[in-house]
Amino acid sequence: MTNAPALETRELTRRFGELTAVDHLDLSVEPGSFFGLLGPNGAGKTTTVSILCTLLKPSEGSARVLGRDVVRERAAVRRQIGIVFQEPCLDEALTGHQNLDLHARLYHLDDRETRVDAELERMGMSGHADRSVGQLSGGLRRRLEIARGLLHRPSVLFLDEPTLGLDVPARRALWERLLRLRAAGDTTVVLTTHDMEEAARLCDQVAILNTGSVVARGTPRELCRAVGGDHVEFELDQPELAAEKLHGMDGVVCVQRNGARIEVTVREGSARLVSLIEALRLFGIHAVRMREATLEDAFLLFTGHRIGPGGDLA
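Predicted structure:
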């Protein structure tokens, strides 16, 4: 068991009636890694996690956690994992400390006081431990839920959209806590998210999911390199003619029109920018922006879509 992947799925499939939420999914996650499942709403992220956490049975295929089958060895799997759900499930009438103490009692932890204090400190919650959960901000509640998920020292921690609904300062504060958890390296973390920046910031490896299947996998840097170049955006008077002009130009990988803008993926963008501007000069350029490729560009490359702010395909 010691050499087994932290997570492994083979031909994993889950259907709900005629809807196939997870479609022959093959995954392997190394122990101690921070792994991201990146995709829009409906891509199959939560369903996959629910199967791995033994909350759903697969329709076909298999899934293992640390070598344990999630169907046949359900109890053993549950002892090895922690999970933070999308929806909050803390008792708002209890304090943060009381919530964790209750969880420790359910797990029959003999050293529960020591563990509760340690996890509250790790998540920066020691100063809020005696406040009722109903008085805490959304960001502090999320930290408390992660502390609870880590309390019994699971080998694998699942975080299902942990920053969903948080404002920017709370989201970034939680990222800092998760980065410390990643640096410790003693827990395998599986993160589901539709936030490109979150995946790039936190994850060692990312699998891009679309309609229940993995369409790409690698480190964030590898996926960005797969785009094949830098991203240059032009705002012009005649975007349609400009797009036609760029097709087939040396170094141009991809050209997409978006309203009055055209978005160009080009190899060695800094070296080719002047020639691009010269080629489009007669089409009324108003603005030019260039940046390195991002996970959003990689997602567009592999799926043909963008993810909107709410997680739906744009």
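Summary: Residues 168-184 form the longest helix (17 residues).
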